Amino acid sequence: MKKTQLQALLDHAISDSPDKTAIHFKTHSYSYLELHHLSKKLAAGLQNNGVNKGDRVAIFLPNCPEAVMLFLACYMLGAIAVPLNYRYLSEEARYVIERTGAKIIVFHSDKKEIINKLQDLFSSQNIYHLNPASIIHNNPQNSLLNNDIISFS
Questions:
Q1: For the chain, which residues make up each domain, given as ranges?
Q2: Which of 19, 63, 70 is CA-nearest to residue 42?
Q3: Which fold has domain 5-152?
Q4: Which of 6, 61, 80, 147 would give a disulfide with 142, using CB separation of 3.0 to 4.6 Å?
């Protein structure tokens, strides 16, 4: 299968400058290689939880490295990332989720109240929250659900 331009750009950055900073957020920087490994880990976790090519993944996160990693994880699987505007209220989020048919949602714990109003759209196994106290690089060996990065709400 022919590589897309994004795949080629990322592969080039990983092979030519693996230790170069890809993302700098607050006090932590992620190299291209770290970004790749963490995105692959998230992709494996999503796949282990039933996300396949063509499935839609709603992402209700603020601007943060984990959001970038989730977008890349979806891309790796051929899943479709459905970004939800972080300012959405429950009615707006419901509209987008219903229109897109998102199978799974990953949300920031700040949005717990809104997610509680949307639980009827997902099975409990398909609702994940991002723990803002956790940092992905603390334990990169864990899978999607065996750590504090993303867990069942």
A1: 5-152
A2: 70
A3: Rossmann fold (3.40.50)
A4: 147
Residue corresponding to tokens 């809104």: 114
Which string of b and e fits 50-81 if b means at least 16 CB within 10 Å?
ebeeebbbbbbbeebbbbbbbbbbbbbbebbb
Percent of the chain whose predicted confidence (pLDDT) is above 70: 84
- Cα R_g (the chain), whole angstroms: 15
Label residues 104-143 b or e (16+ Cβ within 10 Å = b): bbbbbeebeebbeebeebbeeebbbbbeeeebbeeeeeee
Separation between Cα atoms, residue 16 and residue 110, nearest integer Å: 38
